[in-house]
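Hi R.,

Here's the chain you asked about this morning:
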Amino acid sequence: SVQSEIQNHGLIIFRGQGLIGTGNKIVVGYNAVLDIGKNFKITDMCNIGCFREIRIGEQSRIVHRCQVFDSNYHYVANFVHRIVPNCIRPVQIGKGCWVCNSSTITGGAILPNYTIVGSNSLVNKDFSNIPESSMIGGVPAKFLATGFRKVENCAKKHEINLYYYNNPQKTYVIPELDTCD
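And the predicted structure, written out as tokens:
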């Protein structure tokens, strides 16, 4: 329904199967590398601007209306310090991350494995010091909590859906034998 646009002047590496929705704009600049892990999802209306390096880990989800940029596209002169900082910094999104709708990931951002980014967040720094399976969110994003993962197992999702269909007022309790893997 809505066309996507890919401008590739560098290298796009797909490490396996994945899904790219509609209405996306993906730009890879000269000599830049966009490296995407297997079983990824980039859903509808997302923008990716890669001018040096963006790495998206396997099983990661970047959902509708998100943006991932390793550049702010503009050099800004600081006349107090007499410098012009580089406007391009690599982005690294770990394995199994979930970037919720309308969020923006900017240059220098690092997300550990299984990080969940809350909707409408701005991730503009290195979060490599937080534990895996954490949630971050806000503008700018900050650490919120740890111990969370998106449920990806189809059989488990079906089980949970059925539970809530039959028990809408109760809370599903994870069985002792179930692990986050």
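The chain has a mean pLDDT of 95.

Let me know if you need anything else.
M.
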